[in-house]
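Recall from the previous chapter that SMILES is a line notation for molecules. Here it describes magnesium ion.
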Amino acid sequence: MQPLANITPLKPAGAIEVRNVGQVFKTTTQDVVALEDVSLDVKPGRFVVLVGPSGCGKSTLLMMMAGLRQQTSGTITISGAPIPEPDPNRVGVVFQEASLFPWLTAEENVEFPLALRGIAKSDRRTRAQDALKLVGLDGFGKRHPHELSGGMKQRVSIARGLVQDPPVLLMDEPFAALDEQTRMTMGDELLRIWAATGKTVVFVTHSLTEAVYLADEVIVMSPRPGRIVDHLQVPLPRPRTYEMLSGDTFGSLRDRIWRHIRKSA
Ligand SMILES: Nc1ncnc2c1ncn2[C@@H]1O[C@H](COP(=O)(O)OP(=O)(O)OP(=O)(O)O)[C@@H](O)[C@H]1O
Ligand SMILES: [Mg+2]
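With both inputs in hand, we obtain:
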């Protein structure tokens, strides 16, 4: 029998481990060091927000966590294993633009990743309908993207990210194109879905208010080459409320993030 000490415990689903990660882009004129020595642990079920100046490597980091790009150095594991290519069963991704296929209905857009994996039509439809229900779009499945508002399109895109029920959801400025009111509503909606599903979320935003409102933890990055310069815990209770925005805790956290960003401007 093996001694117990030799058995490596399995990482729980949804854990993200980033170790000494760097990314260098080779262009025709020069090498662009986008990220340098980034290390980060995200525990399962946490809501983590990444902020930092434009071009500091937030999207690049998300792309690597999604298996859409490989790091130049260091390691990334998701639920305990590396991610050499996109794996929608482990990681769902939602981008800034809803990027839906205009010729497909909302339902068909959500089903698309399942169709790619050869899942039977009836099963696909049920899962797409469940995902649309989860994002509050019950009854809108037969609409095409041009018949939906910006917020609704982004909901479809979130449903598509959730349809394979991955333990990790990566979101790159998903609400940036929305007006302020819709954005607040979508934030609450996302927190509701997160609380209901227990997923690990990594969310990128330029809005410091959105960052503090949504997050358990906020990671602040430096200008390129991106490094982590601060890691804040947000001690505000949940559910978050609009009234918290004007409280002292909220204000001092937002100020602390802003001081980092301003220093780097
Ligand atoms: N394919 C690429 N080739 C060369 N350079 C790239 C490539 N992709 C990104 N970069 C560079 O890497 C750096 C980080 O880019 P990235 O898009 O990750 O930044 P970001 O923090 O997401 O910025 P923003 O807040 O504007 O979205 C930038 O300087 C960018 O120009
Ligand atoms: Mg970006």
